[in-house]
Design brief:
Order of helices and strands: HHHHHHEEEHEEEE
Radius of gyration: 37 Å
Distance between the termini: 80 Å
Largest sheet: 4 strands, mixed
Mean pLDDT: 79
Helix content: 25-40%
Low-confidence stretches: 200-225
Number of domains: 3
Shape: elongated
Number of strands: 7
Number of helices: 7
Strand content: 15-25%
């Protein structure tokens, strides 16, 4: 039983005087009085702060590692545990891993993410790629191909379902997309898209060749594209 609770029991239940309790419990009457008139749970307070491991000289090293991490792929960046291990092995750090984790967490919030801002001019460019989706056709689940065209400046986009990812489908999606968006950008980007090898451009016109040899031209978009 807690000593404070014993004192209070002696005083309130057994009706002992403060002098008697102090004599039996070997406490001063001031301590006995405080225990009697303070029914709260005792809270331990330090007379002075607990000593801390001097990690200040290691913080610059940690910050440098974390700064270098912003240029690395996510999977190659330091974890707090790896930082602790390197500090101990390379710098003889004597403290705990918990302290390192706390410092790493605090420092990560002060390091801005590295990025390159993307700025586009009106009608400057666009991107195209194929995708897939499962749709209901005639009551049956069918996989269809999607042509996805997007303008860089306005972020307006056009998506249509296609029977395949062959050149004919690629050209058809471009023609329909440029008509829907109101024009064509000055250039297009493709990510390893083999069917795009047959897409021709001449001067400020974007040509698409349909089966049968007939060409359909669409002039570049104005500033609103």
């Amino acid at each position: 039983m807690d000593e404070k609770e014993v004192i209070r029991r002696d005083y309130f239940i057994h009706r002992k005087s403060m002098r008697q309790i102090a004599r039996e419990r070997h406490h001063s009457r001031k301590t006995i009085r405080k225990a009697i008139y303070d029914p709260g749970v005792p809270v331990y307070t330090r007379s002075k702060p607990a000593p801390k491991v001097a990690i200040g000289r290691f913080q610059e090293v940690i910050q440098q590692w974390l700064q270098e991490d912003t240029q690395r792929p996510v999977k190659q960046r330091h974890t707090a545990r790896r930082v602790f291990q390197r500090l101990r092995e390379e710098y003889g750090y004597p403290g705990s891993e918990r302290t390192v984790r706390r410092v790493v967490s605090a420092l990560r919030g002060t390091i801005p993410d590295s990025h390159v801002p993307q700025i586009y001019a009106p009608a400057d460019g666009g991107t195209f790629d194929f995708g897939e989706a499962l749709v209901k056709l005639g009551g049956r689940e069918t996989r269809v191909h999607l042509g996805c065209l997007r303008l860089d400046y306005s972020s307006h986009y056009f998506v249509c379902a296609l029977p395949s990812e062959r050149q004919e489908a690629l050209f058809e999606c471009h023609l329909r997309g440029f008509l829907y968006l109101g024009g064509a950008p000055g250039r297009m980007r493709y990510d390893n898209l083999k069917p795009a090898a047959g897409l021709h451009r001449a001067s400020n016109r974007c040509h698409t060749r349909r089966p049968g040899g007939r060409e359909n031209g669409l002039r570049s978009a104005g500033a609103g594209a």
